[in-house]
Write a structure and sequence with these properties.
Helices cover 49% and strands 21% of the residues. It is of the alpha+beta class. α4 (107-116) crosses α5 (120-144). It starts with a helix and ends with a helix. It comes from Chitinophaga caseinilytica.
Amino acid sequence: MQQIRQYFEKFTPLSDDDWHYFSSRLTRESFPKKSLLLRAGQTENHLSFIAEGLVRFYIPKDEENDLTFSFSFSNDFVSAYDSFLTRQPSIYNVEALTDTVLLRVSHSDLQDIYQNTAAGNIIGRHAGEDLYLTLLRREISLLSESAEERYRKLLADQPRLVREIPLKYIASWIGITPQALSRIRKRVAGIS
């Protein structure tokens, strides 16, 4: 749990009382590889911090054509945040791609933290901002970078984890076919 406290203290000091209040509402949950954290049609009830692992967000189609639109890594927040905020069912799945450990706070507990701690709103704001910036960077990347640039950036930012993500998911995330990704990977390997 110290990992999440250190993350928040980059933005705001937490009194021991605020930290105790917040951390007493966190649950630590482990999910095996390939398990769904949230299934399309369910309402997201948690804002989670990834202590360990790798998570994929995707719109389910037939198994070969799922539309992967985001990944979250260790020390990131993870949530079907639109569902969490609106209390409406999600239209996408959230899946653990590796064995994953989450530190989770429920929607109702987070509302309580907002009301009863000095740092609660700062904690919530930074978690929300982190999720928003991840989505904004993804949107800008899709509009301004080539598929090869997006692949190179993923490789530079998360080299170890890229090896753990099945290529078909990376191809979907980049917006190309697995065959086109294979050609990009050959070019990148030839250049490196």
